[in-house]
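This part of the workshop introduces the protein records we will be handling. To make this concrete, we reproduce a full record directly below.
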Amino acid sequence: MVLEPIGRVESELSNPADAPRQGDEGAPEAWLVLDPAVGEGLRGLRAGADVLVLTWLDRASRDVLTVHPRGDTERPPTGVFNTRSPDRPNPIGLHRVTILSIDGNRILVSNLEAVDRTPVLDLKPVLGTISER
């Protein structure tokens, strides 16, 4: 299996240790800078929309199977598949963000806790009710 990034994150967050655990816990605005070759894929996206951003957490440890949730050693070790830990066998990040603006192949978003230069794999809309799809 081969995954090809479609872009990267531009963020003031440079160190994973300084990033909030979740985007709604104080993440700064960030840019998704997409490859111009995928520009047509942005058709229909608009400011105000919520999207899911899938990233490759390229600085994560891939040999971790248990963690203390949220890094709290007072909590018992838990399997990574029951947590949002970035350290896991396939470190795919899943981020719900709100589009603030779109400028060509650059998308300004809120609530993205991914650090600068994180590869972006895909974008998917957050689905509303069946009648809205």
About this structure: DSSP finds no helices and eight strands in the chain. The two ends are 30 Å apart (CA to CA). Residues 7-125 form a domain with the Elongation Factor Tu (Ef-tu); domain 3 fold (CATH 2.40.30.70). The beta strands are 7-10, 30-34, 50-56, 66-67, 78-79, 92-103, 106-110, 119-125.
